[in-house]
Amino acid sequence: MGTKTLSECRSTFKNFFSKNSHQIVDSSPLVPQNDPTLMFTNSGMVQFKNVFTGLEKLPFKRATTSQKCVRAGGKHNDLENVGYTPRHHTFFEMLGNFSFGDYFKELAIKFAWELITKDFGISKEKLTVTVYHEDDEAFGFWKKISGLHD
Fold first, then answer.
1. Model-level pTM?
2. Residue 1 has what pLDDT?
């Protein structure tokens, strides 16, 4: 598989999750409309904050987005590195898939593995999986789904 453009990567990601019953949701504004705690949208989950906190229900249980984000301060601040490296920017698009009480680790891992190895065509020999050291459940799912060894 050849090199993909940004647009092709975005489409591949969103189409993969759409065919796996995820609602494609448009990017929310860079300035959050109903969240006075944030100056800018800094992650893909911002527009779903009220869903995760139980304040809002959506008519679907799965979503996928390509969220436009700005990070210009706070914990994940890259601002001091902008202009000094070719990789640090304040604006980016965050691709995300979300489950609102519908699935958890096993299916999330299955989706991730299938997307990366099949739809993006990255050989499993080129991949390394890392898991939080106390998460034996996720470790087991990764081994089962990917066929990778310890």
1. 0.87
2. 60
